[in-house]
Amino acid sequence: MTRLLIVDDDEAICRMLEFHFLDDDYEVKIAHSVDEGMAVATQFEPELVILDIRMSGKSGLEGLLEFKQLIPNARVIMITAFHDMESTIQAMQGGADDYIHKPIDLQELDNAVNKAMKHLNSSDQEISVEEGSIITSAMVGSSDSMRDVFKTIGRVAGNTATILINGESGTGKELVASAIHNASARRDGPFVAINCAALVETLLESEMFGHERGAFSGAVAQQKGKFSLAENGTLFLDEVGELSSTIQAKLLRVLQEKEFTPVGGRKVLTTNARIIAATNVNLRQAVEDGKFREDLFYRLEVVNIKLPPLRDRISDLQLLVPALLHRINKELNAKVNRLTPEVMSALRNHPWPGNVRELENMLTKAVALCPSDCLTLDLLPSSMIVNQPHLANKTSTDAIREHHYNKPVTSYSLKEIEFEHIKRVLEETGGHKGKACEILGISRPKLQRMLVQLNLDDLTCN
Question: How far from the centroid of its chain's Cα atoms is residue 449's Cα?
């Protein structure tokens, strides 16, 4: 019989789990605090521990470290009623096998237990986090997809494997990279980011690898590249799918040999920077199309993290909106801490082509114009309301009254909605690409590609 220890100060949950696992022929012991659990574990030597995070006395995160010291081969599953990324990362770094939210789904718990038991005799051990360390991030979310992201961050932060983050523009790829860096042993080293789509090839090569004085016109002094500046830290390559074939070949050499040569130089330099790359394009498809090197793709995708678009995790708005408002209030010295039900309904029904970045930009504009402590419907862009008849009659703005559709929103494809939204933004900004990018929360190259795809380029002026 597998020996199972349940540590939770909620007696009802302990009893429910005890009956559940006794039916599955587990040998079960119960404790209501970390100290009591440690005393039981000393004699019982459990093979599996189910450990609550928030308890009186020592927290489950503190208890996790103690259990892993006392019985290092035991598998530990954390449970909690709270949804925060920092606890998830700390739990996974501390050696937890999984992280389950309350109210407990017994099927989800059984799946986690079965998975943990498969590794019971494995010699692989997770990297431990120092007791009392604090990990912070701007990312929030309680959806299954984001919880998986948080767990993966906790698992990979302790090693130096190259990571590829996939996700649409505005989903928070740099936040993920930063969270991995801050949760790693390199946290005291530099976190250096470079946007591979923002520079032409010649400047990008210099930006990445550095250059010698006189290497090209305007190179009046020697300059270190990002690979040198990221020494003992992390280098984040954003929009890596935009790299030219020449830069791809040079990046491959760095990943293989850990060495590079500055532009115009002869001396070969080395780097120990950890590489995290990100892209909003399908690199596997780009490989098949002959636009991206297959060998480089496999070097980058040692670990893959897929970030979901906001439209696929609308439930996270319940956490995202308050978190963003808190940050925006601090930046703008404002005190907007409420929003009407109609506003939340509009947010939930918007397709969010610009993802979290679009949400943040929209809230920033609304807070800046808000005359009270409560966001109301008239502060939202008209394009967010015209497709919602139950909301449109609640605002008096002329733009909404004048704009209408000939068919219900459910009849529109996502491409049609994107077309209408981008068109409206361009009309409101007078075709100004820079302002449109700021409102949509996307980069200029991304906007340009969408304009071409949607045949909207004639609406822009610069």
Answer: 24
Q: Is 238 helix (H, G, I), strand (E, B) or coil?
A: strand
Q: For 139-197, write each residue's pLDDT tens digit.
A: 788 888 998 999 999 989 989 999 999 999 999 999 999 999 999 999 999 999 999 99
300 C-beta neighbours (distance < 10 Å), count: 27
Find out whether 51 and 28 touch, Cβ atoms under 8 Å: no
Return the DSSP state at 4: E
Q: Which two three-digit tokens encode residue 326?
A: 């808190």
The DSSP call for residue 409 is: G
Res. 105: pLDDT tops 60 = yes
DSSP per-residue letters across 92-144: HHTT-SEEEESSP-HHHHHHHHHHHHHTTT----PPPPPTT-----S----SH
| Distance, CA of 253 to CA of 275 (rounded, Å) | 13
SS3 per residue for 241-274: HHCCHHHHHHHHHHHHHCEECCECCCCCEECCCE
Q: Which residues pair with 193 in a beta bridge?
A: 236
Domain 3-135 matches domain 156-308 at the CATH topology level: yes
The 3-state DSSP class for residue 80 equals: strand
Burial pattern 321-337, b for ≥16 Cβ within 10 A else e, equals beebbeebeeeeeeebe
In the sheet that holds 3-7, the strands lie side by side as 27-31, 3-7, 48-52, 75-80, 98-101
List of residues 6+ apart from 426 with CB closer than 8 A = 436, 456, 459, 460
What residue type is 86 in one-letter code? E
- Sorted by where each begins, the domain ranges of the chain are 3-135, 156-308
Query: Under CATH, which architecture does the 156-308 domain have?
Result: 3-Layer(aba) Sandwich (3.40)
- What is the Cβ-side half-sphere exposure of residue 73, based on CA atoms within 13 angstroms? 9
The pairing of beta strand 75-80 with beta strand 338-339: unpaired
Distances from the Cα of 30 to the Cα of 50, 90, 117, 355, 387, angstroms: 10, 24, 19, 44, 54
Angle, to 10 degrees, between the axis of helix 444-454 and the axis of helix 414-428?
Answer: 110
Q: Which tokens hold the place of 134? A: 């604090």
Does residue 352 have a pLDDT over 80? yes
Q: Which CATH architecture has domain 3-135?
A: 3-Layer(aba) Sandwich (3.40)
* Residue carrying the six token digits 């040998």: 27
**Interval 6-56: pLDDT, tens:** 999 999 999 999 999 998 889 999 999 999 999 999 999 999 999 999 998
Query: Are the C-beta atoms of 102 and 78 separated by less than 8 Å?
Result: no
CA 225 to mean position of chain CA atoms: 27
